[in-house]
Amino acid sequence: MRPEEGTLISRAQAIAALLELLTDQPVIICNGFPSREAHKIADRPTHFYMIGSMGNAPAIALGVALAKPNKQVVTFDGDGNVLMGMGTLATVGALKPKNFIHVVFDNEVYGTTGNQPTISNVVPLEKVAKAAGYVNVERVLDRDDLVYEFKDMLKKDGPSMLLIKVNEFAEDAGRVLHEPPDITKRFMKAIEG
Amino acid sequence: MIESDAFVQALQDMGVDFFTGVPDSILGGIIAELMDRRLYTPAVREDEAVGMAAGAYMAGKVPAVLMQNSGLGTSLNTLISLNMIYRQPCILIVSWRGQGGKDAPEHLVMGEVMPQFLDTMKIPHRVLTEKTAVDDFKWVAETFMKQRIPVALVITKGVVKGLHP
Prior knowledge:
The complex is a heterodimer of chains A (about 190) and B (about 160).
Chain A: H1 11-21, E1 27-29, H2 33-41, E2 47-49, H3 57-67, E3 73-78, H4 79-84, H5 87-95, E4 100-106, E5 109-110, E6 116-117, H6 125-132, E7 136-140, H7 143-155, E8 160-165, H8 180-190
Chain B: H1 4-13, E1 18-21, H2 28-36, E2 40-42, H3 46-58, E3 63-68, H4 70-86, E4 91-95, H5 108-120, E5 125-127, H6 133-147, E6 151-155
Parallel strand pairs in B: 1-2, 1-3, 3-4, 4-6, 5-6
């Protein structure tokens, strides 16, 4: 049993806390429960909800960040997703976009497919990001630290990674209601200019 | 043979302003020219490159992704579960390794099936030739605008000048 088990917040609680601190920043949200929960908590046109292409959320966010260097770009990611697209940590670390914030909800399982274990219990993903060249990395275990560190990252030059340990609880959030082409159009319009 | 700088200029004239990808020897001259012009963002995998291109597209860019045809396999899921479903176009500049069965063994299977593979994925594709280049580029631009999905321009060996002519 993990020492922190039973005391961790849920991913939905973490998402709610983060979205309270965000306004009009583009947020690219990985497939599975993170997109569904964010959609339920606050459906904003600046959200790009993914339903497929697992592992690609930070790559999409990186494309936005490079094309819009004056806009702070955030991606909500999961431990299984980061492990699948781990090469992108290297690309981000090498290119060092200052406007890039990578949030990872780490529950050590593939939640959407039935809680099969990932390997993030033994691979500290924020340390991988640091070694790859991310400028700021933090691992947080509770809501107060999450709020403190995320506020700090919003003020700093990145790339930054905030890894939030969360429990396995998944909100009954339903699927994202927008059609994918509409998500594209809405997001493009929202981040114009 | 098409000069690399003429090839890159043709893409820029079409409005392409975001270039990423993973190298191939056939594309070596093009990538060198893109790097000279400070236009190229290297990716570590083709699916990552396709993802970056999608992000750049949504942020107002016209993206192109360079890859050898083996990269179509690596990026398949991204092309179909991101670009196709979300209607996010990009220009795929794909080198045709293994064409006609004359290449290293690792390229032979994909080299043989690539046209059918692109057909199956419903990715419009055309092979660039020096004679039809103007039409080929026009077709790429029109397909990109009209269909809003990835469109592949296939580059065979010797059509665009490489690093070691």
